[in-house]
Amino acid sequence: MIKSELVQIIATRNPHLFLRDVENIVGAIF
Length: 30
Hints:
It is a single chain. By secondary structure, this protein is mainly alpha-helical. The chain is 73% helix and 0% strand. It is built from two helices and no strands. The protein has helices spanning 3-13, 19-29. The chain starts with a helix and ends with a helix. The model has no long low-confidence stretch (mean pLDDT 94).
C-alpha cells in the first residue's frame, strides 16, 4: 500500500475529515 492509497481510504471512511488533515495523519504514520 502506498501513501496516496492510504490517504484515499482514510478520506473515504472519514468524510468529516478534510483531505489535508488526512494527509497530516498519514504523514505522521510514515
